């Protein structure tokens, strides 16, 4: 077993809406990522998956949130084990980790790049932030080889383009080039393919995958689409309304989903075997996360087709079933 | 780029014609006739009046007068002032440098302080500094500037005696050494420049603050942060560059307000600029002078906006490389 | 309702009440001269002191309230009406109408509003009606530009297109689908506009081109106070404060509305 590089322990986060109200977006998240491991965090929109990704890099303005629990990052590049994010007050230390040890690819490459700077400079910024002594020629060479490695054409021309002059696919490649520039130990990809055309999705995922493999990085892939990523990842966490409901190995989980939510989620994907049939719909809506009363029962209770009486009054624990872990009373022993 | 420039220049020309139309017709259609001024002053004989009417073509139909006026305008000939018979253009050119000095200084102050206060307020969003700035913005919008001018004149000019309260030079200016001359002019400029800047400063600060806060939530800031970029660099390099682009236009648009304000401050401070000249011209119904000043201020604004437009195209890559 | 809006409404309400009941509140006749009591400092007999002709400044300030408020409200009604109509028409119909109207807007925007007003007022009789009309006729272009830009973005939205496909007439589309989208910014512009109209009116009166004495107005009280500023500060302080607080009231309401409806701070 490889070394653990990131773990979140009972991590909870809430947005402050106003003086009284809070939006409890993440609750008691326990996630572990090992070296060279590829992990997917899967959930619908509003489940809190992007918030989790952002909070790993402390990207959410501090005065907007409250949090508790811990997120630890263990790196062999930095000698000490850092208790990460929580009460991170030293900006220099944080900036040393951002982009150098952990980096992120955003969902929408159109808005992730600054519209008023040429893209080449934005890639260079990443290198410069963590290597102040690099000479101009070296910087240039390194940037160009990065752009080449993400399979961009006409590198010298692309280098001088502004974001609005490039296509979504090109921009996402530039974002990928930026995020792997310093060979981070952990790469977070926040729905990297959602805003791209269908034929580009596989290409981009392959690209990310090849970098991760080649450089022995770990990957946290955030997505709503289990089907697309199941072949790329080793381990899967299913997130619903701010809670993990099930986690297990990717292939096992996609073939044999255990939690009623996961089952519904997988059966709701269109695929060849379901041709000509109506796809099932998950009835109802996600509970309102500003109300604490929903947290005293199973969070999926109101939409669950297999609910039992117990679900309304108690919160289930994780139960081991096969190779997976499920937060559902149906698997209680 | 060149096509853009040409189309802007055509628009500029059309706007210029519009400006001359408005100036000319407001002055000439309004109820009081120019010759009335002469009726009121007994010093001018009937013959002299007739001669003046001939000279200014006041007996010709209005559209012919307009084209005559326009023709002369292209040679910068605005006619002679009714009051002292000096060429209008000469009177304006005498006053123009002082007005330009005042306005350029005010624009500089508005730009530098507006950006600075706006950025600082956005950094300390919700903190005490931000609240103070917000209150100051409100004061800037709500205070009658001429009232503040008078209060400042009393406080700094009369009660404390720190600053001179009128004109641009002291009486003994000609006897001063060169550095004393500069110091003298600066002392005279302090109050007018500050008062003239208040309104624009409030507006720009509010604008910069609001836009900086908006940038804060944008994805590109998150991405820049995730790269480990220092927050100083994110604020001044990434965010401010985006905020700065529209500021160019805003400053262009604030020009007329600035010059318009000049008509009051310059009068209050007896500042030897175009504003005071215009006020005096209006009060004495000096038609050629009013038309001249109206045209010149509007054209200055037009040019200011034109430059702002070009700079905007130049600094915003989204327009430059469409 | 947020705090800003509340304070603003209270201020405006107070001034409106003072304005409406000015005759009943004011302790003295605002135009009655009393040469024996010239330039008296504030006291229990004259709250704001007396002016150079022995008139009670408190009564004069109170009796000016309605002048300023009505000039503000009426002139801005004119300009908001014009600006909204021009903006809607230019934005909705586009093409030549748009080009022509926007050129006019550009041209008017090139003149310092205050100079334009001075110019016109100097040739007309400076009285309250002319002031209202002139301020109204000169301050609409900014709003027109703003409304037009909003309309341009709304015009292309799906629901407007579907209304067009359903055969709804232009005027109905403008009123049912487009106007409701710009109404809040227009109202905000209305309240902020009143503030600046009051400032313009008082400045005109201050320069002797506005409300003519003996009828009191905050601007002309200030004008007479200017000559006595080093011996009678109260002549300048109180009317100035009155202008400042009223304008602030309207600005607070505008800002409060902006916060409430979460409208981006744009230069209107």
CATH topology of the largest domain in chain B, anyone? Answer: MetI-like fold
Question: What percentage of residues of chain B falls in helices of 4 or more residues?
Answer: over 70%
Number of domains of chain B: 2
Number of domains of chain C: 1
Distance between the termini of chain B: 10 Å
Number of helices of chain C: 11
Average of per-residue pLDDT values of chain C? 86
Task: Calculate the mean pLDDT score of chain B and round it.
Answer: 83
> Percent helix among the residues of chain C?
over 70%
Q: What share of residues are in beta strands of chain C?
A: under 5%
Give the count of helical stretches of chain B.
Answer: 13
Radius of gyration of chain B, CA atoms, in whole angstroms: 24 Å
The outline of chain B comes out as globular
Structure write-up:
- The complex is a heterotrimer of chains A (333), B (322) and C (268).
- Chain A has 333 residues and is of the alpha/beta class.
- In chain A, 29% of the residues lie in helices and 23% in strands.
- Chain A has helices at 49-56, 91-97, 109-112, 119-130, 136-149, 155-159, 168-179, 198-214, 226-229, 250-255, 260-267; strands at residues 4-16, 22-34, 38-42, 65-73, 82-84, 102-105, 186-190, 218-223, 235-240, 243-249, 319-321, 324-326.
- Chain A has an 8-stranded mixed sheet. Chain A has a 4-stranded antiparallel sheet with strand order 2-1-4-5, with helices on one face.
- The model of chain A has no long low-confidence stretch (mean pLDDT 85).
- Chain B has 2 domains: 2-73, no CATH class; 103-272, MetI-like fold (Orthogonal Bundle).
- Chain B is built from 13 helices and no strands.
- Chain B has helices at 2-29, 34-40, 46-55, 62-73, 88-123, 128-142, 145-159, 178-216, 219-226, 231-268, 274-283, 287-315, 317-320.
- Chain B is globular.
- Chain C contains 11 helices and no strands.
- Chain C has helices spanning 3-20, 22-25, 57-93, 95-110, 113-123, 128-138, 141-155, 158-165, 170-206, 218-226, 234-261.
- The longest helix of chain C has 37 residues, at 57-93.
- Chain C has a single domain (3-37, 45-260), classed as MetI-like (MetI-like fold, Orthogonal Bundle).
- With 268 residues, chain C is mainly alpha-helical.
- Chains B and C meet through helix 1, helix 6, helix 7, helix 8 and helix 10 of B and helix 4, helix 5, helix 9 and helix 11 of C.
């Amino acid at each position: 077993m490889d070394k653990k590089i990131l773990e979140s322990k009972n991590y909870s986060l809430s947005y402050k809406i106003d003086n009284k109200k809070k939006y409890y977006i993440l609750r008691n998240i326990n996630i572990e990522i090992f070296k060279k491991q590829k992990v997917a965090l899967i959930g619908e929109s509003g489940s809190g998956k992007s918030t989790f990704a952002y909070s790993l890099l402390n990207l959410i303005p501090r005065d907007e949130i409250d949090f508790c629990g811990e997120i630890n990052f263990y790196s062999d590049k930095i000698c000490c084990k850092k208790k990460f994010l929580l009460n991170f007050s030293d900006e220099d230390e944080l900036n040393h980790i951002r982009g150098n040890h952990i980096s992120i690819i955003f969902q929408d490459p159109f808005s992730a790049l600054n519209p008023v700077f040429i893209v080449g400079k934005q890639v260079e910024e990443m290198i410069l932030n963590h290597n102040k002594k690099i000479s101009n020629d070296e910087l240039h060479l390194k940037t160009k080889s990065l752009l080449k490695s993400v399979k961009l054409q006409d590198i010298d021309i692309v280098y001088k383009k502004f974001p609005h002059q490039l296509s979504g696919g090109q921009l996402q490649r530039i974002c990928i080039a930026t995020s792997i520039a310093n060979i981070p130990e952990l790469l977070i990809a926040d729905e990297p393919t959602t805003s791209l055309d269908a034929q580009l999705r596989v290409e981009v995922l392959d690209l990310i995958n090849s970098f991760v493999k080649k450089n022995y990085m770990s990957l946290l892939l955030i997505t709503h689409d289990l089907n697309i990523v199941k072949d790329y990842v080793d381990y899967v966490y299913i997130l619903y309304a701010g809670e993990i409901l099930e986690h297990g190995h990717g292939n096992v989980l996609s073939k044999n989903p255990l939690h009623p939510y996961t089952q519904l989620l997988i059966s709701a994907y269109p695929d060849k075997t379901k041709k000509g049939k109506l796809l099932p719909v998950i009835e109802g809506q996600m509970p309102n996360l500003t109300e604490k009363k929903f947290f005293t029962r199973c969070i999926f209770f109101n939409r669950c087709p297999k609910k039992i009486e117990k679900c309304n009054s108690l919160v289930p624990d994780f139960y081991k079933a096969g190779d997976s872990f499920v937060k559902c009373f149906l698997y209680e022993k | 780029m060149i096509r853009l420039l040409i189309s802007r220049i055509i628009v500029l020309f059309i706007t210029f014609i519009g400006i001359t139309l408005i100036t000319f017709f407001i002055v000439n259609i309004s109820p009081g006739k120019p010759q009335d001024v002469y009726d009121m002053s007994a010093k001018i004989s009937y013959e002299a009046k007739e001669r003046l009417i001939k000279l200014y073509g006041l007996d010709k139909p209005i559209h012919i007068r307009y084209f005559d006026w326009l023709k002369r305008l292209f040679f910068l000939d605005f006619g002679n002032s009714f009051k002292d018979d000096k060429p209008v253009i000469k009177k304006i050119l005498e006053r123009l440098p002082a007005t330009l000095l005042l306005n350029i200084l005010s624009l500089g102050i508005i730009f530098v302080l507006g950006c600075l206060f706006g950025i600082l307020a956005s950094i300390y969003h919700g903190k005490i500094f931000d609240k103070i700035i917000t209150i100051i913005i409100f004061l800037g919008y709500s205070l009658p500037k001429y009232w503040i001018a008078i209060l400042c004149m009393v406080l700094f000019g009369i009660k404390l005696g720190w600053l001179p309260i009128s004109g641009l030079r002291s009486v003994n200016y000609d006897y001063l050494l060169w550095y004393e001359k500069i110091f003298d002019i600066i002392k005279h400029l302090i109050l007018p420049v500050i008062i003239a800047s208040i309104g624009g400063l409030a507006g720009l600060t509010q604008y910069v603050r609001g836009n900086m806060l908006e940038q804060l939530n944008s994805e590109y800031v998150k991405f820049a942060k995730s790269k480990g970029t220092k927050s100083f660099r994110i604020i001044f390099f990434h965010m401010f560059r985006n905020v700065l682009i529209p500021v160019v236009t805003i400053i262009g648009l604030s020009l007329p307000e600035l010059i318009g304000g000049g008509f009051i401050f310059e009068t209050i401070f007896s500042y030897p600029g175009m504003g005071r000249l215009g006020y005096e011209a209006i009060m004495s119904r000096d038609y050629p002078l009013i038309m001249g000043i109206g045209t010149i201020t509007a054209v200055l604004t037009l040019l200011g906006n034109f430059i702002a437009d070009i700079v905007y195209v130049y600094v915003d890559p989204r327009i430059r490389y469409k | 309702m947020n705090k800003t809006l509340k304070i603003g409404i209270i201020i405006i309400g107070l001034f409106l009440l003072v304005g409406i009941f000015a005759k009943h509140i004011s302790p003295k006749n605002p135009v009655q001269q009393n040469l024996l009591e010239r330039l008296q400092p504030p006291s229990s007999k004259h709250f704001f002191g007396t002016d150079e002709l022995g008139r009670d400044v408190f009564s004069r300030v109170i009796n000016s309230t309605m002048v300023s408020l009505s000039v503000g409200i009426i002139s801005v009604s004119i300009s908001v009406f014009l600006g909204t109509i021009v903006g809607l028409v230019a934005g909705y119909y586009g093409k030549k109408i748009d080009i022509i109207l926007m050129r006019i807007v550009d041209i008017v925007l090139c003149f310092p509003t205050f100079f334009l007003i001075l110019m016109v007022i100097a040739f007309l009789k400076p009285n309250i009606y002319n002031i209202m009309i002139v301020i109204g006729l000169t301050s609409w272009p900014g709003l027109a530009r703003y409304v037009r830009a909003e309309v341009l973005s709304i015009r292309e939205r799906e629901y407007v297109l579907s209304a067009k496909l359903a055969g709804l007439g232009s005027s109905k589309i403008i009123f049912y689908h487009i106007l409701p989208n710009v109404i809040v910014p227009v109202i905000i512009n209305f309240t902020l506009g009143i503030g600046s109209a009051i400032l313009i009116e008082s400045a005109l009166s201050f320069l002797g081109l506005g409300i003519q004495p003996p009828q009191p107005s905050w601007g002309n009280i200030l004008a007479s106070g200017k000559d006595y500023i080093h011996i009678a500060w109260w002549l300048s302080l109180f009317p100035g404060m009155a202008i400042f607080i009223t304008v602030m009231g309207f600005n607070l309401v505008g800002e409060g509305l902006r916060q409430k409806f979460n409208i981006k701070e744009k230069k209107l």
